[in-house]
Design the sequence.
C-alpha cells in the first residue's frame, strides 16, 4: 500500500491564481481530512469527509473547496489564492472502525 | 469548542536524559487524546492515543503518556532520549465520531544535545 499520497510536494502561486492539491489513499478509508500547518499554530482542520459524496467544514474553511466523488480521492481547491494561504497542507485518512489517522507527506504552498 | 495548549515551544534535552512534554486540553466530554511526532520535512506519525481505560498509555519508540482528568492534562514522557527523538511533537484532542476531527496544540520542538 502507498498509504496517503499528496501532489505536488511544492507549489508557488501568484495571488489570484487557482489550483488543486491532490490527495489519494489506497486503504479504502471512509474518513478523509485536510489540515493546514502554520508555525506555532499546530494543524488546523480545513474540510473533512466521512464518505464519498459527503463533505463538511472544519475550523478554517474559507477560501477552500472540496469534493469527494470517490473513496480514494479528496482534492482541495483554492479558487483565488491569497498570501494568507501560504502554508503546509496535510491530507489524512482513517477507517471508520479504527482510531488512527494516517497523514500524507504534505504540500508546501507559497502564495506571492 | 475544544482546544489544546502546549506551554513549551522549545525544549532542549541531553541525550540519555528524561523528557516530559506538557499538554493541557479543554473539551466538554470524554476526550480522545493523541500525541503525534513530526520529523523535519515529514508528515505526522502517531505515537500513542487515549480513548478510555488505563490512564497510562504506552506508545511507540518508548514513549508513554498519562491522562489526568482532574488536571485536564495528557503529558508525554520518555525515560531516556535518543538523538533520533529530535523532532516536533503535537498533542491533539479528537471530536466527532471516535475523535475524527482533530484539534492540535501549537507543538513543542525538541532538540537533543549530544
Sequence:
Amino acid at each position: 500500500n502507498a498509504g496517503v499520497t499528496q501532489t505536488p510536494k511544492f507549489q508557488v502561486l501568484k495571488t489570484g491564481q487557482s489550483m488543486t492539491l491532490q490527495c489519494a489513499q489506497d486503504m479504502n478509508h471512509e474518513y478523509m481530512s485536510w489540515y493546514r500547518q502554520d508555525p506555532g499554530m499546530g494543524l488546523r482542520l480545513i474540510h473533512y469527509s466521512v464518505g464519498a459524496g459527503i463533505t463538511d467544514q472544519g475550523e478554517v474553511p474559507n477560501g477552500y473547496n472540496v469534493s469527494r466523488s470517490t473513496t480514494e480521492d479528496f482534492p482541495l481547491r483554492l479558487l483565488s489564492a491569497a498570501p494568507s494561504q501560504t502554508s503546509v497542507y496535510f491530507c489524512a485518512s482513517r477507517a471508520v472502525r479504527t482510531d488512527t489517522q494516517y497523514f500524507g507527506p504534505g504540500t508546501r504552498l507559497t502564495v506571492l | 469548542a475544544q482546544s489544546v495548549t502546549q506551554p513549551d515551544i522549545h525544549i532542549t534535552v541531553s541525550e540519555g536524559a528524561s523528557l516530559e512534554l506538557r499538554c493541557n486540553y479543554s473539551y466538554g466530554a470524554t476526550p480522545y487524546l493523541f500525541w503525534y511526532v513530526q520529523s523535519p520535512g515529514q508528515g505526522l506519525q502517531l505515537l500513542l492515543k487515549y480513548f478510555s481505560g488505563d490512564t497510562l498509555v504506552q506508545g511507540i519508540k518508548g514513549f508513554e503518556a498519562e491522562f489526568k482528568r482532574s488536571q485536564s492534562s495528557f503529558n508525554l514522557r520518555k525515560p531516556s532520549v535518543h538523538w533520533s527523538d529530535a523532532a516536533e511533537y503535537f498533542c491533539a484532542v479528537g471530536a466527532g465520531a471516535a475523535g475524527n476531527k482533530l484539534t492540535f496544540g501549537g507543538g513543542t520542538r525538541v532538540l537533543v544535545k549530544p
Observations:
- Chain B has a mean pLDDT of 92.
- The radius of gyration of chain B is 13 Å.
